[in-house]
Design goal:
Blueprint (H helix, E strand, L loop, with lengths): L30 H12 L5 H11 L5 E2 L2 E2 L14 H15 L10
Antiparallel strand pairs: 1-2
Helix pairs in contact: 2-3
This protein binds iron/sulfur cluster.
Length: about 110
C-alpha cells in the first residue's frame, strides 16, 4: 500500500538537478533551443503528469515545468495577444492526461 505521506515531488527527476538549470530566462538561445532544452531536462521524469497538473492547479508558470519552457511573463502578466498561455494550457492538459509531451512544436 502506498504511503499517503509520499509526495510526487520526491520522485521528480529535477530533485537531483540544480534549480538554476530550469531557469531559461537569461539563457541566450532561440525559443526553439529553449523548448528543446526544456524537453531534455524533463525527459524520462516519472512524474511529468503530476507536474503538469500542479502547474494548472496553481497557475505556477515560469521556469521549466513538465517539459515545457513557460516564460515568466505568464505569471500574472498581461495576456499575450497570440494567446500563447492558452497554447501552453492545452499542452499541459495533454501532458497531465497522457503522461507524455505532445509532438507539436506550436507553443513558445
Ligand atoms: S517534469 Fe516537472 S518534476 Fe519532472 S523534471 Fe520536469 S519540472 Fe521536474
Amino acid at each position: 500500500m502506498r504511503d499517503d505521506r509520499h509526495h510526487w515531488t520526491e520522485d521528480a527527476k529535477c530533485s537531483s538537478l540544480h534549480p538554476d538549470a530550469f531557469d531559461l530566462e537569461g539563457y541566450r538561445g532561440t525559443r526553439e533551443s529553449k523548448r528543446m532544452t526544456a524537453r531534455q531536462l524533463c525527459e524520462g521524469c516519472p512524474v511529468i503528469a503530476e507536474c503538469a497538473r500542479d502547474v494548472l492547479e496553481h497557475d505556477s508558470y515560469g521556469l521549466v515545468r513538465a517539459g515545457l519552457w513557460t516564460p515568466g511573463w505568464m505569471c500574472g502578466g498581461p495576456l499575450d495577444p497570440d494567446n500563447k498561455k492558452g497554447i501552453f494550457t492545452g499542452e499541459l492538459k495533454f501532458i497531465s492526461a497522457t503522461g507524455r509531451l505532445p509532438e507539436s512544436e506550436a507553443a513558445a
